[in-house]
Amino acid sequence: MKKLLSTLLALAMAMSLVACGGGDTSTPSDTSTPSGSGGDSSQTQGEDPIKIGFFGPLSSASASADGLSGLQSAELAVRLLNESGGINGRMVELVDYDDALDTTEAANIAERLTTADGVAAVVSGSYSGPTRVAAPICQAAGVVMVSAYAVHPDVVNAGEYIFSQSFPGAVQATAAATFAVEELGAQRIAIVAVDLDFGTEQSAYFKAKAVELGAEIVSEDYIAMSDNDMTSVVSKIASEDVDLIYMPNYYGHAAEVCRQVVLQGLDVDLLGCEGADSWQMLQTAGEYAEGLYITTNMDRDDPNESTQAYIENYRAEYDMEPDMVGASVYDAFEVLFAAMKEVGTDPVAMQEYIANMKDFDTVTGTLMYYTSSGSAVKPVQIQRVGEDLQFHSYSVIDDISIIDGDNIPVVEY
Q: Are both 232 and 291 inside the same structural domain?
């Protein structure tokens, strides 16, 4: 009888604990949430927010400015969408992570987003390295990922669920070489590139096109991300009688090259790429940036309503100047929003819808279409830093044989 009473008492206590929630045996990792994930557990299944994942290099010493631009634009896109009623009445929840420009961390993030977090889609706001390792994971999970601005072909080559909102490196570099030789008249060119995929890929395609057009590549220097002193590099170039320096670099290196060119008295044109399209570039280089040309996808002077609304909203929200990175991230979210509004969150339907988008209005101009591999086709903008030390429209490369990456012969590098 005592044993029976003890058993009944234990059962009663267990039932009481379960009723009070004490029987929950989940581990902390089951309930942890990334920064910004939020969520209202009281919502019914039909009211649950649509989760979209995002990652960028927020804590990287060399890329934190780009990480910040990307995250702020992601937050802005989600906030404005939710304020307008969401996606067919459902709110969107941003699930964001810092990849610290680390490929191992990026792979871990992609695994979490596509499993534990249960996102409907992912936006990469990071560089080619982290995006290249995240893309195959999203592809294997059947989750649509839109890369905002990573240039390496391996990103979209991961599979049909992966898209890129900006140009491949081959497109941007081919456009740069065409502009350098045909519009600026460059004949003797020096290359100063970051020693990463970003720099080596663009250098290879730039060289191929420039030589084809009759120019000579006089010298090439490849710089480590950690090397911020360009004194000796520019001194060497000064003795080589060049008329243009091509810089497939990020903003830190580009700013220092601009500074050294002026300080050492070189009379050369400077042509950068989207890596220099940053508020940090202008802030760091200051007056030394005047006259710099860059290839990019953002035209600040575009009268397009979407472009000007984004610039105005970004300035008002963050008291900062927007740049190509932020605009590209914003566009990536706009593409996903459009797909979800039309076909819902089924990944197969979303993939098919995005792959067939035509003439879609974005902050960075009209998205004409995506290539067979998933890269955006749009005109390449040439921006120039004016006397006001701001980027302004200078020229446009819209030759379809250049801006559609499928038309460019593969260059080994």
A: yes
